[in-house]
Model the fold of this input.
Amino acid sequence: MRNARTTVLMTPDEKADLEKRAASMGVSSGEYIRLAVDNYEKISPGEEAELAALVEQVNAAIPKMHASLDQSIKTLEELHEEMDAFLREKGIRK
Done:
């Protein structure tokens, strides 16, 4: 039976954020806090190292992703210009 209380002081904005997060999970703000406390520091050192390695890999991949997206945009723009010229040539577009 839950009958022990802890008071947590926060700003109105923090409380609103807490209630919004709890509502998004379909739980009360008290249950959200209990879940957060239960799961705090549950990442093992091995998991933390693995996550750090994954973050490093993602960060390394981001410039390549940007370059790929930039190239895709360039290709699509060129295709759009070619298609526009073709349609104008055939009298379909003016």
In short: The first helix runs from residue 12 to 25. The CA atoms of residues 22 and 29 lie 5 Å apart. The two ends are 76 Å apart (CA to CA).
